[in-house]
Amino acid sequence: MLSYRHSFHAGNHADIIKHATICLILESLNQKEKPYFYGDTHAGAGCYSLASEHAKTTGEFETGIAKLWRASDLPKELSSFMKVVRQYNGGGLRFYPGSPLFAKALSREQDKLSLNEIHPSDSPLLKREFKRDTRAHVDSIDGYHFFRERLPPSPRRGLVVMDPSYELKDEYRKLLTSLEDGLKRWENGIYALWYPVVDRQQINDIEKKIKRLVIRPTLQVELAIHPDSEGYGMTASGMIIVNPPWKLFEQLAELLPWLANTLEADEGAQQRLRWLVEEA
Q1: pLDDT of residue 246
Q2: How many beta carbons lie within 10 A of that of residue 211, not counting itself?
Q3: Handedness of CA 272, 273, 279, 280 (dihedral sign)
Q4: Which of 220, 216, 142, 153 is nearest to 180 (CA)?
C-alpha cells in the first residue's frame, strides 16, 4: 500500500489537483451569504516547510507547486489557490499550506471548521495552527469515525474532505463505509474524497462500488503525470466529489489540460474528468 504522510509530499502534483478542487468548491460556497460547514477527516499538520528533511527527501514540490509558482499564464481557476499559497510565502516559495489552511483562508467569519488529525506528531501542530481561530474545532479522533461523530453538521450546508494516508489494506473499504454513513446522516453535503493511483484495478473497483453505493451526482477528476504502471509508485491522483457545485465540471475542464501541460505530464498519461453518477 501507499505510505502518504503529508509532510513528505507537500506541494506535489497530487496536492495541486486536490487543493485546487477544494478551493473551487469553497469559492462556490462563498457565493451565498449563508454560513457553511467545512470538515476535514485527515487534516494533517496544517502547514509544511519545503526546506524540511521530509520535503527535501522526495523533492516532489519541485515538479508541483514550484512550477505553478513560476508560471506566468495562471488560469483564473487557480486564482484563489495561488492567492493562499502566496499568503504563506512572502519572499519566495518556502512553505506549502495543507487543506485546513486553504479552508481557513477562504472561509468567512460566519462559517465553521471541524478539523481532525490523529497522527501524534501532526495533531499538536494542527491544534497550534488554529489555537486562536474561534471558528475552528480541532479533534484527534479516528478519521473514519468523523462522520459518525460530526454529522449532520450545523450549519447544514458545506463540504467534507477525506484524505487518508492509504497505508493499510482496508483503507478503501473504510473510506466507502464512511461515505455511506455520511450520506445517510447528511445527504445534501458535498463530499470530496482524494485517492492515489498506484494500482489501476483498485481504482476501477472503487468506481464500480461508488456507482452502486451513491445515488447523488458524483464527479471524478484525475490528474495523471505518468501512464498507468505495473511498478510501485503513484502515477496519478484524483478526487471523487459527491454533490459537486454546478460549475465545477466546467471549471475543471478548463483547468485539467493546463495542469497536465504545466506539470509536464508524460506522453500517454490519461487525464480523467467525468460523471460517475449523473444527476437524475
Answers
A1: 93
A2: 12
A3: negative
A4: 216
User: Of 139, 163, 199, 228, which is the active-site residue?
Assistant: 163
Query: What number of other Cβ atoms are within 10 A of residue 270's Cβ?
Result: 12
> Is beta strand 136-139 parallel, antiparallel or unpaired with respect to 112-116?
parallel
Domains observed in the chain: 6-277 (3.40.50.150)
pLDDT (0 to 100) of residue 52: 76
- How many residues are there in the chain? 280
Eight-state DSSP code of residue 139 = E
- Name the amino acid, one letter, at 142: D
Determine the Cα–Cα distance for residues 193 and 160; give it in Å rounded to an integer: 8
Instruction: Report whether 182 contacts 212 (CB < 8 A).
Output: no
Q: How far apart are CA 3 and CA 130, in angstroms?
A: 26
Amino acid identity of 114? S
Looking at residue 280, its pLDDT comes to 66
Mind giving me the DSSP string for 41-66?
A: TT--SSEEETTSHHHHHH-GGGGTHH
Look up 163 and say whether it is catalytic. Answer: yes
Name the nearest CA neighbour of 27 among 73, 71, 78, 69.
Answer: 78
Distance CA 108, CA 153 (A): 17
Cβ(198)–Cβ(228) below 8 Å = no
Residues of the chain with pLDDT under 70: 1-8, 54-58, 280
